[in-house]
## 1
Amino acid sequence: MTAKDPLPQSRHLATAIPGPKSQELIARRKEAVSAGLGMAIPAFIERGEGAILQDVDGNRIIDLGAGIGVVNVGNAAPRVVNRVVDAVQAFTHTNFTTAPYMGYVEVCEALNRLTPGTHKKKSILQNSGAEAVENAIKIARHSTKRPAIIVFEHAYHGRTNLTMALTAKNVPYKEGFGPFANEIYRMPMPYSFHYEGNLATMAQDYLDIVTSKIEKEVGAHNVAAIIIEPIMGEGGFIVPPKGFLSGLSKFATDHGIVFIADEVQTGFARTGNMFACEDEGIVPDMIVTAKGIAGGLPLAAVTARAEIMDSSHVGGLGGTYGGNPIACAAALGAIETIEEEKLVERARHIGKILNESLTALAKKYPIIGEVRGRGAMQAIELVEAGTKTPNPAAMAAVIKYCQSKGVLILTAGTYANVIRFLPPIVISDELLKDALGVLEEAFASL
């Protein structure tokens, strides 16, 4: 493998976006690829490093999406690349349940060590967050011998049939794809920006509503699991009020229900803790991880109390590619990077810069209704000025402006009016501030 010159960590526009080469490739994509796949930015990427993506026309784009919170350690992180190269030269596949290898075991050992709680834990590995969620539900049902699953408004858990049933938002995730799996019960989710009641009592108010609905409409004794994102991702980076998650966890424990933290988007240093549920000292029975686990390679995991994980019969869990040796090598490189480069602390620093800049923008532009998030996972919700009415048109205009200037940012939200910021945690202060400067220009241009 020949070494390449480092990719400059600076924004640079060689052409308009999309440039002529990207336009040609977009036309080829249209002919060859299903129209059901979206495209956030009209630029074909040929190289990525750190927090910069370079397209085929030579434009260097600041990446504030990290592949939807995947490359937390940056694109082409050296420890990830080196371990992957060594692994792919050794062997590419055996299927762990056919002929095992150490990489799978080492990733499970790392997950058992890093996830919250000092109790005995065990893990299994899959390919994607949705597959991990499917396995988490399967294991919880097998362990408890109960059918019902509790989920929440604004939740996103994946695009398979079961995980679509768990996911709240219809368009684009569920429209026309039903019927969906049954025994899924959706509960109200505290969303402070749209709450008209007393914010001081919101956590307890919602706990009372949710637990009452579970007891009266489902029967707590029928519930296998409660699954929730510690911060809602696709739903718009909704941060639950303090006490809500801990109250749910206690209710689950009291009723023999498996409490599952879906940390697919919030995990691996993203929020300023290794896992978001650590913010309140919550120890879930089971935790689902993916995205940031392997620096860009497909890997996911379920980690839970050993007795829950061991309740399944031999052969009941598995999958051909789950825990592929190349992805395991990448995960070990990503985890090493997070720990050696202190990315948990770095995420808190990035969060401070983001929050201060976005809060200043909100004071200047009344269409920014709320700034929220934690660590390197922040968002702004756009509204009609002076109201809480969603403003998706303003969001679209801001996104388009930023893209044209070489800054990739992502959308989110049940009401399609949230801009989310998920930069690689290795992004420099200078690069982040440059991107935020472009964002301010976007609002000024409205």
## 2
Amino acid sequence: MSNGPSYRLHPVSILFNCIKTAREGIFLIVFGFITFDRFYFILLLAIFSLLGILLSVLSWYRFTYRLEAGELRIEYGVLIRKKRYISINRIQSIDLTAGIIHRMFKLVKLQIETAGSGKSAEASLNAIKLSDGEKLRNALKGRKESHPDIEIEGQEESVNPLREITPKRLLLAGVTSGSVGIIMAFAAIAFSELEQFIPEHFYDRTFDWISELAIAFIIGLAIVVLLVFWLLGIAGTMIKYGKFAITKVGDELFITRGLLEKKQITIPLKRIQAVGIAESVIRQPFGFVTVFVEVAGGALDSGEDFSTVLFPIMKKTEIESFLQEFLPGYSMESVHFTPLPKRAMKFYLIRACVPILVLGIVATYFYPQFSWLAVIVLLVNFLLGLMRYQDGGFSVEPERVIIRFRGFSRKTMLLYHKRIQAFEKKQHPFQKREGLATIKLSILGKNGTGKHYRLKELEEEHVDKLGDWYSYRE
């Protein structure tokens, strides 16, 4: 893409603007449908639709971009004209995305991230030709030609390291994703937005109906609901990570993924702050893990993970070869973990069980018919607390520290000394009496915010040695 002339987005951008406007106003549409008379509702909907289309057309017409004097210059705005200049030297990564509509017209969405990007990308061109997107990316990155390994519609053979996910592994990733909780959380959020439109007597009738059911039927109904969410989780994982591939070119990693929306992510190695290995409760017994990285700065788009997945699923025995190939500085060969002391176990069990025990007693008092559920939850939390204690540990090397801990999944984090922004020692009176302490390590994360890792109830002596290591004290 040559310097100088200005370019507009593809006209399909008008459609994307209309869709965005409709999505943002969906709850107002529902509210208007319930509140207003049918005639006035249709009239207002038609007026606002015409205004939305007109505004989308004007927004497309007034949006221009060009590459000039080592800067990407963007001008936009209907009533208020805005100009944004982005220096090539400030650009950290350039991502290309192609949704279903994009692929119909051979278009892509180009997003640019800089060190100062907040919750959204520094600049976004939501509909440009694939060829123009590649030319612009190469110009901003200082490349003379498009990279052969990273194509929206396919990949060609190259000498650069390349790994792809197989259909069998992709299915296994979906089956063991454990995304039931995430889908249920989204369902709960959606329900909370719509509950204002649901009559109160509906809740009373539903609760009375559930209370009258047999326990066996309730359990069966819960299993069916979980099964539906599990199948949705499998589908979501396969759609998100379909055709997943990672390759390394020079000092950058390139990731492509997605069946419906094909994403192309660029990760400069210098922005990687930590490498993590996650072992979920479901995958751990079978020896499967997920490898991810924490990247400094950048944007967190809607629906994206707070961490960037380097590979969705692989055997634990494959980690070392993967790291040697793509991130040799993060090799885990011959790592020995120092475990938590035995006297730390009671703290983990108390934290896991006491809140659930109190809530279970209160719930059983008001709803004695569900006391069995409180017992099951208490037992699960006891086992989880025990696992958290057993999995905790750390390893210190001259230039890096490796810590292992568990929330629901067991995570192993590899952090280089130069990437750690802060080291903090915490100790409450009960820990002090036992000679224990908690550490908190902080690094830069997405959105320019901090990412924190805590390891609780270590030997105080070990914590002090870690503090000396971080501060370069002898």
## 3
Amino acid sequence: MTKSKQSPSRRSYKLVASEAAIIGYVAYFAALSLKWLDIIELANTSVTFANVMVFTISVVIINLSVGLYEAKLREPFRGIIRRIFVSAILSFFVVAMFSGVLFTEFSPHPLYAPTAVPLIILSLVIFRYHIHTTDTFYSKPRIIVLGVGVRASVIEKRMRRDVDRANFDLIGFVPMPGDDNENGIKNETLLHIDVNEELQRFLADNEVAEIVIASDQRRGTLPVSTLFDARLKGITVTDLLDFMERETGQIAVDLMYPSWVIYSNGFQSQNYFRQLADFWINITLALIILSVTWPIMLITAICIYVDDGYRTKTSVLYKQERIGKDGKSFNILKFRSMRPDAEKDGAKWASKNDSRVTAIGGFIRKYRVDELPQLFNVIRGEMSFIGPRPERPQFVEQLIKEVPYYAQRHNVKPGLAGWAQLNYPYGASVLDSLEKLKFDLYYVKHQSLLLDLLILVRTVEIVLFGKGR
């Protein structure tokens, strides 16, 4: 069996075993290093072994939960680093809970965990970089696309760059009956093969791992028996919508159809206990952040007042009606970043270099300080930390008419930060709203505590490095 056909589960087992060995060695090396530097006395064998095992097991399990051992992980190397960072930090708290609270007899020196965690992160990043650049464990799956029409052209238009195709090897596109060739594929490799007679042999000869169904006309055109046989042989058969969702982290709204929504995974309704847990997590986190950021909020309010508040007699806070969960309206709170007469001619889309923004407003927008008052919206239960950004009623009414499935983003609470803001950070038109909706619906479909955590980590990075709007 060639490397490209190596079992995904076998590759995952090899990766788990390799990283478990690395984590265990590094965790033990951290204890030895502190001893060699005469910083601590080496603890007895049972204490060291217990903490090494807890670190190893917890990091591996959390790596598993964040998808780092997924055979078809579609994530750039930067995203893998983030997941490793999250996993190691969470493991730090697991070890602290294990040896500091549950089993105090296994408590290590206070410097042990802070030393082990950075070393584990560094070692895993180096190991993953080696894998990423050499394909030691994961060879790129070879795929073909059935279809060369309008639907198939979405891949050509939205995944033009090499980085967009870094996780797979696209062999080519197969023309299908009923395809709109005039408005379809323009600059891709076309595979002129008879799908009923030659496709099965082509799949075997070229070690194809996945078939993407992207034909414009499906009824009566797909080689069902060949696809059935391919599926039984372990070849993945994927709908275009699922493929784009997996590879781009968004849902192609303009290609959606009701049956796909009905039969697809995701869009799980939140049960009572999940909603209750989310409610208390959001409130607790909001209170913690509020207790830390109130000096920043006070300074910001004073700066806005000195800038133009005292002269115009306008409040430093800006209250605006927005649409929240289930289409209910609420008043969002923000620090005022625009001139008092910014909307004298009615509601307008904000633009990137908006002339209505004050000097102070530009700064607080860049670092998201203007959104700190929304902590009170979270405490009141009107918003969450993570979710689609709430829009104004005037725009929502327009967007529901012009953008398909736009109302479905209101199935969850709006948030201070969201998946769309990370992937499409600016929106000032109906077209932009359509693009952001693709990411919002991806979040609605896949919402989970893990996804929220990853969005939160990336948002903190944006805030710290001033990459905001």
## 4
Amino acid sequence: MKKTMLKSALIALGSALAIVSAPVVAQEAKSLDELLRYVEQGRVKEAQENRAREERFKAARYQQKEMLDEAREMLKSEEKRSAALEGKFEELELILTDKQRQLKERLGTLTELFGHLTSTAGDLRSNYQNSLVSVQFPGREEFVNKLIEKMTGAEQLPSITEIEKMWHALMVEMTESGKVVRFETDVTDASGETTSQKVTRVGTFNIVNSDGMYLKYEPETESLQVLPRQPSGPFIGWAEELANANEGIHAFGVDPTGPTGGTFLSALIDSPTLTERWHQGGVVGYIITGVGVVALIIALWRLIALSLVGSKVNAQLKSGSANDNNPLGRVLKVHEENPNMDSETLELKLSEAVLKELPSLEKSLNLLKIIAAVAPLLGLLGTVTGMIITFQAITIFGAGDPKAMAGGISGALVTTVLGLCVAIPTVLLHTVVSGRSKKIIHILEEQSTGLVAQHTEGKQGA
């Protein structure tokens, strides 16, 4: 029994060893002899595999040694080649230095000439890109580009013919700057439609179409475009007259700052008109304008009325009988109706008659005075309101755009200007109307005083 158990244990242990040492054993040994045979077979196979590995390692070592030898041979070859190339480079560098010295000696004083020629060609190319003459003669900058490319290459020098052609190009540009010419070309309107139109070029300053509209030259697209906003005033009329004229001298608004809508023309275009400035005043500006219109109507009405009354009073002064159609006649009527009244009572009656005429003569004068005082206050109100809005915008968006900030302040000050424009004429009109009224009142007081004195003298003489 013990032998059987021992045998089974040895068989199990042998099977485990066979599995660990020899993975090729696919089945369990049934006896110790079979187990021993399996173990020997595994050892033999492992030995064969180990010898195969050693052979591969030796072959790889020999191969690596061969590759290392080849790399060392290649390194030596490249070092020799590098030394040869360095020598060749030094040799060529000496040749280049010698050639540069020879070129400098042959150029002599022409070096400065070619430098100026290159600079002039660059300036001319820049002028061609923005010149209105290029609209009439497209593609003329091609020669200048080739000449600049040739001179900057430092391989070839410009010929006498090319230098003369360069001089001729400068003379053409200078000559064309003093001409007024008419030709036909494509023009793009504000809607984006391109049509062929007759245009008139005034030197290198401005170009207009037959309708007198100023055009803008776009160098990027080499096209003419109608300015979306034209200058106000007589400029459009002058341009149209020049564009349709055949001879003679004509007025024209020239922008000397450039053909692409230069700074001066842009300033004229961007400057708001009187109507636009008036609209900048907003609601307060409209109120001030309405108040000014009312003041003007009242002043004209009172001037006409007082002029008619003054003419009737002057006629009454020349007449021998009192007439009820004028204040002086009504005052004289009091004396005629009371010839026997004592002087004190007559004086009071005449003063009463004069006082009755004062309201009709001084009608609406106080209203004119109030308008003259209120108009500047309304302007100040609009300015303060506009400044508040401007500073609120600065608080939100910042003060990075001075132009926008200045535009807001300018719009706010429009109401102050409107207020002063209403107040100053109103004060003058009030002065004129008040002077007419006081003149008539003075005549009434003078005549009433004279009547009292005449009546007193008559009583004393009687």
